[in-house]
Automatic annotation (TrEMBL):
Record's GO cellular component terms: cytosol
Superkingdom of origin organism: Bacteria
Swiss-Prot/TrEMBL keywords: Methyltransferase, Transferase
PANTHER family assigned to the protein according to its UniProt record, in alphabetical order: 23S RRNA (GUANOSINE-2'-O-)-METHYLTRANSFERASE RLMB
GO molecular function, one term: RNA binding
Native source species: Christiangramia sediminis
Protein name listed in UniProt: RNA methyltransferase
Annotated Pfam families: SpoU_methylase
Spans through the membrane: none
Any one GO BP annotation for this protein: RNA processing
Domain tRNA/rRNA methyltransferase SpoU type span(s) in chain numbering: 27-170
Length: 181
């Protein structure tokens, strides 16, 4: 078996216009008071990889254009649809009123382990990722339809927000898109 690395020209990358026209994965990402500009950029890049529908930047979460967001986003702020909303809780209420299921990614009583979670077919869901120190605000957790927890077996039980986003988006993408292939 050949193990030659692929060149960029062989990767079938979408142009910005092709990305915007492509069918999106029915997932919305909500960043609730995320401090790190590098984390924000990484989330954009991951959202681009999995054709995520939209990112909402809430509270203190910085907005593009910013050089530190751009450094890690590598242009994904131009492909992924995004919007700034001041209040995460109001956004959660609005999305729920539109029929979107909202899940906080957090460690909480009654949380569903990610490996046990099954997204509803053909239904948009919103995933709330929180502040690097405090996590998702309790009032947002309480307003969510459910809480999803990433199983962790080590001593820290703490993942960087950009890592958490990558783990959860890959898991849901694979359950939504790849299992239907």
């Amino acid at each position: 078996m050949e193990k030659r690395k692929l060149r960029n020209s062989e990767l079938d990358r979408k142009s910005v216009d092709q990305f915007k026209e492509a069918e999106k994965t029915p997932i919305i990402v909500i960043l609730d008071n995320v401090r790190s500009l590098n984390n924000i950029g990484s989330v954009f890049r991951t959202a681009d990889a999995f054709l995520i529908q939209k990112i909402y930047l809430c509270g203190i979460t910085a907005k593009p254009p910013h050089k530190d967001i751009q450094k890690t986003a590598l242009g994904a702020t131009e492909t992924v649809s995004w919007e700034y909303v001041e209040d995460s809780l109001e956004l959660v209420k609005k999305l729920k009123s539109e029929g979107v299921k909202v899940y906080s990614i957090e460690q909480a009583e009654g949380a569903i382990m990610l490996n046990d979670f099954q997204p509803e077919n053909n239904k948009t869901c919103a995933l709330v990722f929180g502040n690097e120190v405090k996590g998702v605000q309790q009032k947002v957790v309480s307003a969510s339809d459910a809480v999803i927890e990433i199983p962790q077996l080590g001593s820290k039980h703490s993942l960087n927000i950009s890592v958490s986003t990558g783990v959860v988006l890959w898991d849901l993408f694979s359950k939504m898109k790849l299992s239907k292939s």
